[in-house]
Every structure is written in structure tokens, then in C-alpha cells.
């Protein structure tokens, strides 16, 4: 048993998208805390910006692929086996 029997593919994809979204929110909170402490290290800021962009791309990419596959294979794809 893989543990997926109790949920649909759609709910699993939703959980992945939420993880990306929550990661972005966490990053925004960390950035705000860092600004409050008046730290400005450009290398760290660049790394944070790259992570933030990656989280946005991941969230959109997973949703886009799911939408394409649902359109291609139908609602049975969203429900799963």
C-alpha cells in the first residue's frame, strides 16, 4: 500500500502546491525578520531571491502540468486509480 489509496491525485497535487506556497510565505516572513534586524548581505539576499523564484516556478509548474494532464486524460486522472 502506497498510502495514496485514501486520497485522489488532485488532493496530492494540491498538497504539493500548498507546500510551495507555504515555502514562499515562510521565506517572506524570514525576509521581513531579517530586514527588521537591519542585516543586508547581498549574497544571502541573492540566494533568497533565487529560492523565492524557484518556489513560485515550482508551484505554477506543478499546477500547470496537472491541468494539462487532467485535460489530456480526463477527470479519471485527477481521481487516480
The share of residues in helices is over 70%
Low-pLDDT stretches are: none
**Gyration radius over CA:** 17 Å
Oligomer: single chain
Strand content: under 5%
Helix/strand-derived category reads mainly alpha
SS summary, helix count: 3
Q: Order of helices and strands, N to C?
A: HHH
Average pLDDT, rounded to a whole number, is 80
- N-to-C CA distance: 12 Å
Largest sheet, strands/sense/barrel? none
What overall geometry do the principal axes of the alpha carbons give?
A: elongated
Number of strands: 0
Detailed description of the structure:
The protein has 81 residues and is mostly helical. It is built from 3 helices and no strands. It is elongated. The chain starts with 8 loop residues before the first helix and ends with a helix. The model has no long low-confidence stretch (mean pLDDT 80).
Break the fold down into its secondary structure elements and pairings.
Elements: H1 9-36, H2 42-73, H3 75-79
Amino acid at each position: 500500500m502506497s498510502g495514496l489509496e485514501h486520497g485522489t491525485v488532485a488532493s496530492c497535487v494540491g498538497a504539493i502546491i500548498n507546500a510551495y506556497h507555504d515555502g514562499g510565505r515562510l521565506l517572506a516572513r524570514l525576509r521581513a525578520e531579517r530586514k527588521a534586524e537591519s542585516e543586508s548581505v547581498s549574497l544571502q539576499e541573492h540566494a533568497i531571491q533565487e529560492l523565492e523564484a524557484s518556489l513560485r516556478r515550482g508551484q505554477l509548474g506543478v499546477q500547470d502540468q496537472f491541468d494539462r494532464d487532467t485535460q489530456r486524460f480526463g477527470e479519471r486522472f485527477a481521481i487516480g486509480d
